[in-house]
C-alpha cells in the first residue's frame, strides 16, 4: 500500500503513544526543507520556517495548538521583483477519528461542535497524525496572494497603459472608420 509522497519534514505524532499531559512538537526547517517548501508553495524562497506546537489527547484524537513563524520571499505580481514577507500564525486544530462506515452515532451520544470556530475537526484514520501537512497548509493560507512592493502599481512601471490610441482596439476602430469612409 503506497502512502503517497514523503513529507518535507518529520512532524508525526502517534495518538496511541501520546501522554495524557501531551507533548511538545518543535519544527525548525533546515536549508533542504526550506527549499522544498518554497518549491511546493511556488514562491522564490523560504529564509526561515519554525513552529512550536503543544499536542494533547482529545476525545480519541488530538488537539494541536501553537505558533508558526516564517520569513519568505515571493515575486511581486506587478514587477516580478522579490518581496519579503514575515508570517506569524496561531494554530489550533483538532483531529478526531473518522466514523466507521455504516456506524451511526448512538442516540444521545456526545458530538463535538465548536460554534465559535469556523474549522470543523479533521478526521484521521489510523494511529498517527502528520502535522507537517497542517504546518504547510497554515503557511500556504498565510501567504499574501498578491505580493507587491510598497507603492508599486502598474502605473509605476511606466508602460503607458493609458488611452493613447496605440492599443489593438484603437487600431481596429481606426480601420473600421477608414473602411466606412470608402463607401
Any low-confidence stretches, pLDDT <50, length ≥5?
none
The first-to-last residue Cα distance is 75 Å
Which bin fits the share of residues in helices?
A: 10-25%
Main beta sheet: strand number and arrangement?
A: 5 strands, mixed
Form type: elongated
Total domain count: 1
User: Mind telling me the C-alpha Rg?
Assistant: 25 Å
Number of strands: 7
Main sheet: strand order: 2-3-4-5-6
Question: What distinguishing features does this structure have?
Answer:
single chain; 183 residues; alpha+beta; five-stranded mixed sheet; two-stranded antiparallel sheet; 3 helices; 7 strands
What does this protein look like?
Residues 157-183 are annotated as: Disordered. This is YceD family protein. Pfam families: YceD (PF02620). InterPro entries: YceD (IPR003772). With 183 residues, this protein is of the alpha+beta class. It has one domain (12-182). 21% of the residues lie in helices and 33% in strands. It has three helices and seven strands. The protein has helices at residues 31-41, 131-142, 168-182, and strands at 12-14, 23-28, 45-58, 61-75, 82-97, 122-124, 128-130. The strands form two sheets. The chain has a five-stranded mixed β-sheet, covered by helices on one side. A two-stranded antiparallel ribbon has the order 1-7. Strand 4 and strand 5 form a beta hairpin. The longest helix has 15 residues, at 168-182. It is elongated, with a radius of gyration of 25 Å.
Amino acid at each position: 500500500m503506497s502512502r503517497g509522497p514523503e513529507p518535507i519534514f518529520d512532524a508525526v505524532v502517534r495518538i496511541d503513544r501520546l501522554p495524557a499531559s501531551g507533548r511538545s512538537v518543535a519544527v525548525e526547517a533546515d536549508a533542504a526543507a526550506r527549499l522544498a517548501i518554497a518549491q511546493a508553495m511556488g514562491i522564490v524562497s523560504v529564509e526561515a520556517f519554525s513552529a512550536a506546537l503543544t499536542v494533547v489527547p482529545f476525545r480519541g484524537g488530538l488537539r494541536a495548538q501553537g505558533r508558526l513563524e516564517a520569513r519568505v520571499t515571493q515575486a511581486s505580481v506587478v514587477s516580478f521583483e522579490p518581496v519579503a514577507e514575515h508570517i506569524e500564525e496561531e494554530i489550533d486544530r483538532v483531529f478526531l477519528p473518522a466514523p466507521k462506515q455504516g456506524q451511526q452515532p448512538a442516540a444521545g451520544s456526545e458530538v463535538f461542535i465548536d460554534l465559535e470556530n469556523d474549522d470543523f475537526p479533521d478526521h484521521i484514520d489510523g494511529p498517527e497524525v502528520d502535522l507537517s501537512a497542517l504546518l504547510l497548509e497554515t503557511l500556504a493560507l498565510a501567504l499574501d496572494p498578491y505580493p507587491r512592493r510598497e507603492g508599486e502599481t502598474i502605473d509605476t512601471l511606466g508602460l503607458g497603459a493609458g488611452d493613447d490610441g496605440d492599443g489593438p482596439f484603437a487600431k481596429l476602430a481606426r480601420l473600421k472608420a477608414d473602411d466606412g469612409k470608402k463607401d
